[in-house]
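Lab notebook, bench 4. Still working through the backlog of constructs that have no structural model yet. Next entry is a single chain of 203 residues. Request: give me the structure tokens for it.
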Amino acid sequence: MYAIVDIAGKQFKVEKDRFVYAPSLAGETGASVEFDRVLLIEDDNGVEVGTPTISAARVAGTILEHGRGDKVIVFKKKRRKGYKRKQGHRQGYSKIMIDDILLQGQKASKKTKKEEAPQADAPKAEAASQAETSGDDLKMINGVGPVFEEALNKHGVSTYQQLIDLSAEEIEKIGEDVDGITVEMVQEDWVPQAKELEAKKEG
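Model written out:
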């Protein structure tokens, strides 16, 4: 079962017990949130499309953390005018765990923050622990920031060599969790950098 929901002006495909990175939302870490602009729901009964939204359908979730994405450089220049401007930007985001997709008349399951959050972050904590003890700093690769590094660690990639050895199918699976990771970007940009860093480490 999945749904297409509008969160802060952007559309996301969401499934229960999976997380999404949405634009920054008001609310503290651990707070429960609900989104009522559900555009489509697919379940055992088929596909229901809203006009434009599905009446009384909601998506319930929990805010896991707030953060900022990878830096984007904005450079502007006007020829022969002596005008140059370079500015960096890091877009804020909220990481949201999807707890329930609710149809008309349904109520959200009564799970407390203490019960839900540790289960949701268990793979992340385990992967992060392994990365700290035996992994490389993947952020040394240009284009890999905290969000992308977390996604790689979640899938067991914590060293340069593991990144080099990724197959196209494995890269596509990682890209399903986090938008922005593509086979071409990893193989043509990240892997050559990882090979250079691995060579320096061995040398």
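Notes after review: Confidence is low (pLDDT under 50) at residues 112-121. Helices lie at 113-134, 146-154, 160-164, 168-177, 183-202. Flag for follow-up if needed.
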